[in-house]
């Protein structure tokens, strides 16, 4: 979501607004006149990185007082004007829902002769999507944001407080953005949202449209090859979504479905409002439809009160769900969340030991699944030129395994048809997520 937001903000700033100042992107902080930091506060480590980065930028501003610095995203939303106490040299502060107002905020800052920082961390629903320019697509992949916010209020999570409650974009707007991306050459679309499968948009007649129905609309677009989505919630994984996996071949057999813990007791403390059996039942039902499904998840290790038995339940869930990959982190209390009032009574060494154990198990599972692909035929999307081998192209499988495909040197002197599917026989696994394949038939 932050990658998507940052790209849209950059596009917005490069437009000609008729303002005295127009902007052009640079990759060098030393030559920039404006530095913008789009932030995340979902974990304590991410938030502290924000202030470390601002400390480095402060030195640039001491040398060049006219340098403008802006902070946006969830840390800005959470801290608001309080952020200025730690970083008084910041000029503008904007939230995830007000990034479209940045040009106006910069203008106000200049009109005030930079005496007062401009702060806007309000929640104007999906106003920003009405203001933002159409995204520029480079390559064959595109992210499309379809909803924002979260109304689940898990006890550990700061997202509802920094991004607001769930708000879905109108169906026609989503379809128009996907069509725009496909017209620019995108062939793989990833739908994004804090709870993407909680999408509840409306069509032009005001009729409510659920997530599964949206998938059917998008799959009917002839240029679309692969369709992905992230991140989803188990409670929103309904039978209509299962049917979408049954009927839509464009929907890849890969699912990221965060569970956070394998212990029913901890899930209850987290206010996830489902148990491990509900989660496993959804996975079993999906694997009946897509036996080749690859599953990834999120885990929080060391939640307050987590015992050894609770953690063993998490390890067993990895096996029971036959998981492939996970984003797993040590628990850190987020200010303002209910869990922040709980006693963080799991010692840090035990948290780290459990995290190492979990990640080791997941790495073994990922390697096992990668090895099992050897000898199979896979549809691979061309990504570009391999940097691992001298004469090979690079492809990607539906489950995000990289495939290096030896080819004739002449192939590399011509523009590669990125985004095209080719049929490949997998001959070797060279790492946890990388393979070698032999080209068979161009499809």
Q: Name the poorly predicted regions.
A: none
Radius of gyration: 23 Å
Number of helices: 14
Oligomer: single chain
Shape: globular
Structural class determined from secondary elements: alpha/beta
Separation of the first and last Cα atoms: 32 Å
- Strand order in the sheet with the most strands: 15-16-17-19-18
Give me the count of strands: 19
- Determine the mean pLDDT: 92
Helix content, binned percent: 25-40%
Task: Tell me the strand percentage band.
Answer: 15-25%
The main pleated sheet reads as: 5 strands, mixed, barrel
3D architecture notes:
This protein is an alpha/beta fold and 443 residues long. It contains 14 helices and 19 strands. It has helices spanning 2-13, 44-63, 74-79, 83-86, 102-111, 127-131, 159-162, 171-183, 211-219, 239-247, 264-269, 276-289, 308-320, 348-372; strands at residues 34-39, 68-73, 92-94, 118-120, 141-145, 147-148, 167-168, 188-192, 200-202, 208-210, 226-230, 254-256, 294-301, 325-330, 377-385, 392-396, 402-406, 421-429, 434-442. The strands form 6 sheets. It has a 5-stranded mixed beta barrel. A 4-stranded parallel β-sheet has the order 1-2-3-4, sandwiched between helices. Strand 15 (377-385) and strand 16 form a beta hairpin. The longest helix is centred in the last third of the chain and has 25 residues, at 348-372. It is globular and about 65 Å long. The relative contact order is 0.08.
